[in-house]
Write a structure and sequence with these properties.
coiled coil, mainly alpha, Transposase, 2 strands, globular, 139 residues, single chain
Length: 139
């Protein structure tokens, strides 16, 4: 058992649910998935969800949910995106579009990090309230 006292399958199911809530929140706000270097930024997603990045590689439910979100967003992870446009000259507007895209991705990553930090702050404020009161306080 882990330090939180939850069994592996229970913790795994909770992680999948956290990821589902996070992806639904992004979808409703119209915010794209965080990207870094042309790929999904799994670290930012894990941070926003409040679990370890390895969950997105090991947990089959989380992996499938993320793959579904990537496919739904029309993203292709890896080098397949860059194929086919080698002969086309790069124009100034293409550079601007690329820069805008990079900035949007950085913004999405920072939003995900901000969401994770706000959630962590909320939990720590609750722990502090419990410690100060000396007894359990309702969240």
């Amino acid at each position: 058992m882990s330090g939180s006292g939850k069994s592996g399958p229970l913790a795994g199911a909770e992680n999948v649910e956290k990821l589902r809530v996070y992806l639904d929140e992004l979808r409703t706000k119209g915010v794209p998935l965080p990207m870094r270097g042309g790929e999904i930024n799994r670290s930012a997603i894990a941070l926003a969800c409040g679990f370890n990045r390895q969950v997105l590689y090991v947990n089959e439910g989380a992996k499938a949910l993320l793959d579904e979100a990537v496919a739904g967003a029309g993203l292709v992870v890896g080098l397949e995106q860059a194929e086919g446009d080698d002969d086309k000259p790069v124009t100034r507007s293409d550079k601007r579009d690329r820069r805008i895209h990079q900035l949007e991705q950085a913004n999405a990553s920072l939003r995900a990090e901000n969401h994770g930090l706000r959630e962590r702050l909320r939990r720590l404020e609750h722990v502090e309230a419990v410690m100060m009161a000396g007894r359990r306080v309702a969240p």
